[in-house]
Write a structure and sequence with these properties.
With about 525 residues, the chain is mainly beta. It contains three helices and 47 strands.
Length: about 525
């Protein structure tokens, strides 16, 4: 069975319905209207270069001899224009900012703006509603390295008539001045950025990754979506962001489909996709290989969360490949607005520091409720610690190292206390772990409500080296630690197998209920 994920005027995206994480059990060829189109190996595949309002039939021919097919009709459009029509050169030397921005501004609603093969050097660009940008094969939007020419946007502008504050910029959970992002949408609707081309932040050739602590504003992202809705990013490759690569912010109905997000392993804060305080986000069939968290789900720090009361809600992450980041899928630490209804399924993690990572701390506030979180059908290879929930996170805040954050005393539950609800980890196979199989450390005064671990196998590398499973004050290094759970009200462990553990396989402290069934304790 083939599921349609996206249908545009010139591109479509499909997902094979199966259970294997990210990769199809067998490779397959695609014939489009009877003609050879290409070969694929992943569960999500895309077709490009299609004609608008045209009927197509795609036939899938699997290596085993099995076949499948799907018929579809592409969407319509009002017109299709090229950035070359507006004077864009695309040689990577001449700056094309004015030409590209003019093309976006002039494009009629429902139109498609194409970028033919070439390298389009540009300063930041502003998106507008009801348009599609198509990056064709070999096309790259390349960010300028001239930081002095990037506009700095204030975090909050004030309407001189009404006195109302208008939010324009933010970073790391605060409304604060920031350089305009390479592609920036503000209050936009119905925008698609599609095609097999790329958007390159070009940070490696500028100064974005060096001395940024002293910049007059927060670094830009490659794509920043401020209070937008009905946004689709399909097929494109996003590269080398000055900071986070993709940052949907207080947006609704955002889909990131069959994309690649790439940055060097040692690049600072180059998170792949960080949807913040959004409603309905789908990240499906994507490949992340970055220098920080691959996907980080956020909902602001205390001040911003208290003002807007906007949780991260209804997120689906499926059929993705994550490599080399600090965490594959992370919640927090700026999650003061809360995170609810998250599903992470059918994903493959390779060589990330942590797999499924939840981080918070005292001070995130009473609205920081993280609940109804499911991780299911996950495969990990060479992930140092597959599962981490850490309520003692000691980074990214001026008071991160204060006694209030790290004290193990049972402090009063008040307006600053976050709450952790139910978490289910199911059907996971983890090979060559090193530090710990599972490290869950709740707050003394407000324990995690429940953790379920079911149908999980973890084996440790023979060459495992000690490390800290979570970023917290005074945390000792661990090596081949089994299941460690502290301050969890209810624990359920079913059909869990651990290989190569040093010491006890299950350590559960300050827990009201521990239920085990089929737990491998030999």
């Amino acid at each position: 069975m083939i599921k349609l994920l996206y249908r545009g005027s010139s591109t479509v995206c499909f997902e094979l319905q199966g259970t294997e994480p990210h990769f199809s059990p067998e490779k397959y060829r695609v014939l489009l209207n009877g003609r050879e189109y290409g070969q694929f190996a992943t569960n999500v595949f895309s077709l490009y270069g299609l004609a608008p309002e045209t009927d197509y039939r795609a036939e899938l021919l699997f290596a085993s001899g099995d076949t499948d097919s799907v018929s579809f009709r592409t969407a319509g459009e009002t017109c299709c224009l090229s950035v070359r029509d507006f004077g864009a050169v695309g040689d990577g030397v001449h700056e094309d900012t004015a030409s590209i921005q003019a093309a976006i501004n002039m494009l009629p609603e429902g139109g498609r703006l194409t970028f033919p093969a070439g390298t389009y050097l540009t300063l930041p660009l502003s998106l507008k509603s009801r348009v599609t940008l198509e990056l064709q094969e070999g096309a790259t939007i390349l960010g300028s390295t001239d930081r002095q020419r990037y506009p700095i946007l204030t975090g909050l502008a004030r309407d001189p008539v009404t006195g109302r504050q208008v939010p324009l910029a933010a970073f790391e959970g605060l409304e604060r001045p920031a350089y305009q992002s390479l592609l920036q949408g503000a209050f936009c609707e119905d925008v698609a950025i599609v095609g097999p081309g790329s958007v390159d932040g070009n940070a490696q050739n500028g100064d974005w990754w060096h001395g940024f602590e002293h910049f007059p504003a927060a670094r830009p992202r490659v794509l920043f979506l401020n209070r937008c809705q009905h946004i689709t990013l399909h097929g494109v490759t996003v590269l080398n962001g000055p900071a986070w690569n993709i940052h949907p912010f207080f947006s609704k109905d955002v889909s990131v489909l069959d994309c690649r997000v790439i940055a060097p392993k040692d690049s600072p804060n180059t998170d792949g996709c960080n949807p913040e305080s959004c409603d309905t986000v789908n990240i499906i069939g994507c490949h992340f290989s970055v220098g920080d968290d691959c996907i980080a789900i956020k909902s602001g720090k205390l001040e911003m969360a208290a003002k807007y009361k906007a949780p991260a809600d209804r997120y689906t992450i499926r059929n993705c490949l994550m490599e080399f980041g600090h965490g594959a899928v992370t919640l927090g630490s700026e999650a003061s607005g809360g995170v609810t209804n998250l599903s992470v399924t059918q994903c493959l993690f390779r060589e990330t520091d942590r797999g499924l990572r939840i981080k918070s701390r005292r001070g995130r506030g009473k609205d920081s409720v993280i609940n109804n979180v499911l991780f299911d059908n996950i495969r990990m290879d060479k992930v140092l610690t597959p599962i981490v929930i850490n309520l003692w996170y000691n980074c990214c805040d001026p008071d991160a190292h204060d006694e209030y954050v790290w004290s193990r005393e049972k402090l009063p539950v008040d307006d600053r206390t976050p709450h952790m609800g139910s978490f289910a980890f199911r059907n996971m196979e983890c090979t060559d772990a090193e530090v710990a199989a599972c490290y869950i450390d709740g707050l003394t005064e407000c324990p995690i409500e429940s953790v379920e671990l079911e149908n999980i196998s973890v084996s440790f590398s023979d060459k495992a080296r000690p490390g800290r499973p979570a970023m917290q004050e005074f945390a000792p290094e661990r090596c081949r630690l089994g299941l460690y759970l502290d301050n969890v009200r209810k624990i359920r462990v079913k059909n869990v197998k651990l290989r190569g553990v040093e010491g006890q396989k299950l350590i559960a402290a300050h827990c009201d209920s521990v239920e085990t069934e089929g737990f491998d304790e030999d």
